[in-house]
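Dear colleagues,

As part of the handover before I leave the project, I'm documenting each prediction I ran so the next person doesn't have to rerun anything. This entry is a single chain, and its sequence is reproduced below.
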Amino acid sequence: MNATNATEGSSMVTRFGVDVGGTSAAPVVVVRGEIDVATSPQLRNELNALVERGAREITLEFGDVSFVDSSGLGVLVGTYKRLREEGDRSIRIVGAQPSVRKVFEITGLESALLVD
């Protein structure tokens, strides 16, 4: 799915979107917008599909992610655990904005999921 912008009042709001590139073994998933109760199922479905297709190292590019709630964290932790249980497989998040990075720091997930 491609992310698009929508005008809401005078500010630009990035709609949720997921674009997958890279290779089947090492996909790069560019995520945009807010990851919340409404959008986390779509992210979960995409990550589950990648795992089922044999992804060994999933990189999530979060440069355009503006918000992550507990349901989004649940999707990320669930994928992290699944990959770890299945052997030498991993998921990592790169490019997180400071406000999103803070969520990972507060929850203690920074060392497990964030790379930079």
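The two ends are 25 Å apart (CA to CA). The CA atoms of residues 10 and 83 lie 42 Å apart.

All the best with the project,
I.
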